[in-house]
Amino acid sequence: MFPSSRAAALAKLERFIPVAEDYARDRNHVIPGHPSVSRLSPAIRHRLITEEEVVSAVVRVHAFSRVEKFIQEVYWRRYCKSWLSLRPEVWSDFLRDLDAIGENPAVRRIEESQTGNRVIDHFANELVTTGYLHNHARMWFAAWWVHEARLPWQSGAAFFFRHLLDGDPASNTLSWRWVAGLQTPGKTYLARRGNLEKYLAPELRDSLSDGLAAFENPQALELQTCAKPHVTRKEFPPDSLSPSMVTGLWIHEEDLAVETSPLGQQTFAAIVVTVDAESWNRHQFPSTKRQ
């Protein structure tokens, strides 16, 4: 379902371009196989291809007005990445809170699709077995987690980050904060039965009907809001190097398309490719995500 190389990602993008103009109309519908979305997010998350490449390819074929919604969604990740880079304490606080919360048996039951709610168990199984969930399903799932199950949002964010192939520290964490009413203070997201019935594919809606009652009358969990995070990191390293400098290149999983960056024209004395095994272990990444 997801490309694991740059060539495969570019080929998948080409196959999506003809239907990109239907994205605004169809994007919210949760359909098995997810034909209404590009499914390029894992490749974009690790920069096998870039946001600019995706958008440029789409607007070469379609008028901007026809694909504006798709372009907006592509760049949401860039916005979140920039927002968190300016406020790294939000990520540090998230990790600290996770350590304080510790293990929760309820999270393990969800991960094993043993909640007893057919909707939640279906999406938990899809996430664990495929490494993916449609964005609308992610919102429903997170809303149920925070406002119905009343579990810590940090544990839910960690659950998603552990399994999502496109799991990004910025967009994942900020999305869960938004559902919980922290990212935009006082504005929570609630999953309502009517919304699920409208956007679930008929075959899913029928097979999961027993679980829809949990979304009948959602009540927001009002979390104590803290002070708005301030910008603490205002400067970034330069994006260019002096040609006279003897330099090495470090390639890591956050950017696997260095050749498309300003470093692509640089000559390096050595190149090192690494993985962050320590973080993989800390977040308990499954073998399917480590490959």
Write the layout of secondary structure elements.
Blueprint: H1 6-16, H2 23-26, H3 41-45, H4 51-59, H5 64-86, H6 89-101, H7 105-111, H8 118-130, H9 135-148, H10 153-163, H11 169-179, H12 193-199, H13 202-207, E1 248-251, E2 270-273, H14 277-282, H15 287-290
Parallel strand pairs: 1-2
Account of the protein in words:
Strands 1-2 form a two-stranded parallel sheet. The chain is mainly α and about 290 residues long. About 25% of the residues are buried. Helix content is about 50%, strand content about 5%. It folds into three domains: about 5-85, no CATH class; about 85-215, DNA Cyclobutane Dipyrimidine Photolyase, subunit A, domain 3 (Orthogonal Bundle); about 250-290, no CATH class.
Helix content: 40-55%
Q: DSSP strand (E) fraction?
A: under 5%
Structural class: mainly alpha
Number of strands: 2
Q: Which geometry do the CA atoms define?
A: globular
Low-confidence stretches: none
CATH homologous superfamily assignment of the largest domain? DNA Cyclobutane Dipyrimidine Photolyase, subunit A, domain 3
CATH architecture annotation name of the largest domain: Orthogonal Bundle
Q: What's the CATH topology label of the largest domain?
A: DNA Cyclobutane Dipyrimidine Photolyase, subunit A, domain 3
Radius of gyration: 20 Å
Number of helices: 15
Strand order of the largest sheet: 1-2
Overall domain count:
3
- Kindly provide the name of the CATH class of the largest domain: Mainly Alpha
Helix and strand pattern: HHHHHHHHHHHHHEEHH
Largest sheet: 2 strands, parallel
Distance between the termini: 15 Å
Mean pLDDT: 93
